[in-house]
Amino acid sequence: TIPANANWSQNGVTVAGGNGGGGATNQLFYPLQCTTNGQVVAGGNGQGNGLNQLNQPSDVLIDKETDSLIICDDGNQRVVRWSRGSGTTQGEILIGSIACVGLAIDEQRYLYVSNGGNQEVRRYQMGETNGTLVAGGNGQGTGLNQLNGPTYLFVDQDHSVYVSEYWNFRVMKWEKGATAGIVVAGGQVQGSALTQLWGPQGLFVDTLRTLYVADEENCRVMRWTQGANQGTEIVGGNIAGAGVNELNRPMGLSIDRYGNLYVADACNNR
Q: Which SUPFAM superfamilies match (predicted)?
């Protein structure tokens, strides 16, 4: 459990990339999500729509049961699975014809996918292609039953779905079976005040239901405790930059079991 008033070092340590944008194994190019020298585990065969290729992948997660990667292949409008076993040379399509952006998976292996084209989030059993609507689906808008630019997702232990809405400048919580969401962060016009977000992206929710969100345009990571009407800046928030205390378009984020915060710092390629 992370205390609600926990503090993080204001100086980060680069754990991947940071050697300029590029395709070498010690480089990253506009990283969007978090999961030294790296190893290519999916794609790496140029941009394209072949089963051995990816096109602007936007999110990835690990399916532990099958030891595979599930990837939002955004540019190809599909969700694909790549085995992590040796000798894997191509993926398989799980869901096609979907403007996928973000992914999440629960302990029952239900897959959640945000669809920016339909302004909705759906839940899928593995192997299912239609899914069940769990958020949005009522057209683009600002209503509590609508989404506008859904990106990253988080699913908590109660199967509530948290959704970052890029163009509504808010994070919504949709409880299981709900027909409308609850604003849990932002929801004002875009801005840099502690009550505002500007382009929310990656999410993490801890066991106290404290929300952590990458606030892309404000180059910061925010913390919102449950029920709070404003957040706290925990890292970044300076001007966009490449210093160890700066971020430049933070996207995905995660927190490990020790409370260490990991941020995909897109424009710094790290």
A: YWTD domain
**Residues 6 or more apart from 249 whose CB is under 8 A from it?**
216, 217, 219, 240, 265, 266, 267
Closest-CA residue to 159 (of 175, 138, 141, 139): 175
Letter for the amino acid at 83? S
Cα–Cα dist 214/197, whole Å: 9
Q: Bridge-partner residues for 263, per DSSP? A: 253
Picking from 8, 31, 3, 17, the residue whose alpha carbon sits closest to that of residue 264 is: 31
What's the token pair of residue 86?
């040796």
Q: List Cα–Cα distances, 38 to 24, 25, 116, 131, 250, in angstroms.
A: 9, 5, 30, 34, 20
| CB 150 within 8 Å of CB 164 | yes
Domains annotated on the chain, with CATH: 57-268 (2.120.10.30)
> Whole-model pTM?
0.86
Torsional class of 56: left (φ above 0), alpha (ψ -120 to 50), beta (otherwise): left
Contacts of 29 (CB under 8 A, 6+ apart): 21, 22, 23, 269
Specify the DSSP element, H or E, that contains 253: strand 250-255
